[in-house]
């Protein structure tokens, strides 16, 4: 396919909805995937200006003795303080957005690329995305999945994170497509349908 740029597709969803699971399937189908949350963490450890900004915002405990970003401690601070979370987001997101644009340039020959992120249009990501997929699952199912996957988190921790994120109703409003990852509907056929559609669409 000879086109100037790939379609940029966002994948978002609440904690435990199945964003990463969905992205692994897109990847197996040949789509490059940018994992914004993971890349954000990488930047907190490798971008010295960001590191200094985070220490200024949260204090030296944001990094452990070896100088690594202290995710558990930071999570305890920001997921119980909307103001701190917003300030942390404001430090991290401009860097993630810039990093994404460089990344996309590597894939001009692909029909579409995927950007997985906890925050989507609410973090300004929407400006560069052609479509947003919301992965949706009921809260109770998500909590059970996270309790199984992350033994260090309690149900109260998970509910705190859910309350720090936009509501399911708000998230569904920004969706161009919804993937239902509940226990009733099969995920694969839904993903395959989107893969075929994106593979045939030429960006405007
Ligand atoms: C807050 C931090 C320390 C929590 O780390 P921890 O290892 O405990 O959790 P993890 O990263 O697995 O995230 C837990 C859940 O919260 C979501 N999440 C991550 N960051 C955010 C955020 N800023 N706002 C809302 N939800 C978020 C994740 O998608 C996941 O669903 C860490 O996620 C972080 O530094 N986040 C800021 C980076 C960011 O803004 N990511 C989004 C980039 S678009
Ligand atoms: N349809 C499914 N059936 C059973 N388990 C699933 C399903 N979808 C996801 N899971 C499991 O649920 C857990 C959460 O899924 P995943 O990590 O993909 O969610 P996420 O939205 O990326 O999570 P986070 O918000 O924490 O980044 C994982 O252990 C995953 O294997």
Automatic annotation (TrEMBL):
Keywords: ATP-binding, Coenzyme A biosynthesis, Cytoplasm, Kinase, Nucleotide-binding, Transferase. The keyword Transcription does not apply. It is an enzyme of class 2 (transferase). It is found in: Cytoplasm. GO terms for molecular function: kinase activity. Catalyzes the phosphorylation of the 3'-hydroxyl group of dephosphocoenzyme A to form coenzyme A. This is Dephospho-CoA kinase. It comes from Nibrella viscosa. The gene is coaE.
